[in-house]
Amino acid sequence: MEYAEYFQEFPDAYAKIVAGLDRVNTLYAYLIDRGLLDHAESVLSIGAGSGDVEVRIAKQTGRQIAVVEPSQVYFDQFMQNVAEAGVQDLLIEAHRQSFQDFQPPRQYDVALSLFSWFAFDLDRALLLKALACRAPEGKLLICLPTEDCPASRISAFSRSGGINLTSDRLSHWARREGFDHDYDIYHGVVPVGLYLQEGGLTEQGKDLASFLAATPWDEMSDELREASLEAIQAGRRGDQIDHASGCLLFDAGKHAAAE
């Protein structure tokens, strides 16, 4: 099973993992602190999932948002989140389709792919398409885990395909292909106690390992369990676990576009 299918088959498990990572709060803070939304009026999210970050952007900053999301489950949850946040007037587009099928009706000041580029791998045509979604002075931001991130270490031995792309690999490939960009590290840190306890993993840690490895904990071999523990321990920085992610910023006002 490809990760995209696994992702859609177990949305509740994914939601639980994202909540544990505190990704909505940390990602939103990163976007604001880095000034990535400055001077922007419209934001396109590619593979928005349930759109928690995107809804936060609309509610807190008043930016207009547009999303592309192929999963009916996540799309429905996104629409519910929009209604509950009261930002319907700021939702300019909602496309329930794949990015491959998406035909952008306009250009956007900022295009985001927040942990969704797994689905596209090293596809030159799709990167060009994403870049073309930007306004003349717009930006494209792609975030993925680094190769040293605990999530990437566990994903390396996942039973599911389509989850092994890292920000490092994408960045190196993009530069070789002539796509200049800035590369920044976003640190999504959580307390050690969320995943680690004396002698092993907490239930939340087991959930994380099981989801990324696409293998229920009670079906994991001792070797796989130990590898999962070591992967999470590798991300320990003092009293925190760092889920470091690399962010590729393609700024139309700064970087020449590849042909």
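the 2nd protein, sequnce then structure:
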Amino acid sequence: MAISVYKIIIVVFGLLSIIFQAIGFLAPAWELYDLDVDLSGTHTTFKVSVGFYLDSVCINDGATEVCRGYAVSLVYPTILKVDQKDVETFVGEILIREFLILQIFVILSGIIGGFGFILMIVQLRTDERDTTNNVCAGRISSCAWIVAGIILIAVVGVHGNEYSVYKAKMDSLNSIPEIIGIFHGTINFPWAIAMEGAGSWFALIVGAVVAVKYCYKQRRQEVGTWVTFTNPATDMQEH
């Protein structure tokens, strides 16, 4: 298998897409909150990071700071001091409402993208041979990358819109006169969706490059066949 610029580009971009998707999926950065609470003269800061599978919360009362990681979104019950028997119900409602659908689509995109990457490697190993299997692998790989990229763009768009809505609500909450000086919340940009966004664009680039290559290759073959069929010199040489 000869190494070419084309092969290097799509392999590197494909790997970058998978890496960015994995970082975004695993990072506890789908919701990021900074909460400042002043009660009885004590100022306490909460830093909350929420992800699909890993959450963390840091509590600073001015004297000490304690940070802990949690699995399966146990952050909210911990902060709100919810009774342990209600934790599973509380967490389940949060997951279903906010994350479950996004989680399904991100996993689906990762599976499709991984499938496209495997087919792409198969296609590259047999790139010099214009066999039916090679052509099918290239076309399916291109489609898989493009579908994965579109799914991720949809996920980023949906969660980006939710971030804007929640941020506006938090700003409204902060402006209520009764809680000014007692509570102040900040919703930070969830950088996990930036990772997923980068992964989606790399996936789309790979899919587009592979598609263009195969369209050009097919067009060149069709032109070559037509020239051979219509060239009298070729017929004379054969006879």
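The chain has six helices and five strands. The two ends are 36 Å apart (CA to CA).
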